[in-house]
Specification:
This protein is of the alpha+beta class and about 160 residues long. It has one domain. Helix content is about 35%, strand content about 35%. It has a 7-stranded antiparallel β-sheet with strand order 1-2-3-7-6-5-4.
């Protein structure tokens, strides 16, 4: 009896590992053209060389997608992005809200990622799209961005779940 229980438990453990491994995907290396397409998908326009050093990591686990992006750009591009429905909030007000992905490091985040505190940013821009039953898209979405003034790097976080 003990042998068969262990055997069943072993098979269940293997099936669980395969199932969880099959549901999780991660991508961090992109070509320049893929980076520009991802930039356009997030912000609605191509950077046309005005955003440089674009880095991106996307993690999919089940019905959740998390994306981290960082890039350097001039003030014109930064303003164009911020004006696409983002709301500005001062750093002192951020800590009143529950925004863990801005305040602390996510274990899935890439090594190059900086939180707001790491970057010294004083302002956060965000968009929240709540889940609406029966509406398209059927998902909730948080999008945040802030700027590291010392390096002129924009950090962008996108969290989506269904």
């Amino acid at each position: 009896m003990k042998k068969s229980f262990r055997k069943v438990l072993g098979h269940c453990s293997i099936a669980l590992i395969i199932l969880l491994g099959g549901c999780a995907r991660e991508k961090e290396s992109f070509s320049n053209s893929e980076m520009e397409r991802e930039f356009e998908a997030q912000f609605g326009f191509r950077p046309d060389g005005k955003a440089t050093e674009i880095r991106c990591k996307i993690v999919r686990i089940g019905d959740t997608i998390t994306e981290w992006m960082a890039f350097r750009c001039d003030n014109q591009i930064a303003l164009r992005i911020a004006e696409t429905d983002f709301t500005k909030i001062a750093k002192r007000d951020i800590y009143k809200a529950a925004i863990p992905d801005v305040k602390m490091r996510n274990p899935n985040a890439p090594d190059w990622w900086k939180t707001m505190d790491d970057s010294g940013a004083q302002e956060l821009y965000y968009i929240y799209t709540p889940y609406k039953d029966g509406a398209e898209p059927v998902q909730s979405r948080f999008r945040y961005l802030w700027r590291d003034e010392s390096s002129s790097t924009i950090f962008y976080y996108n969290g989506v779940w269904r």
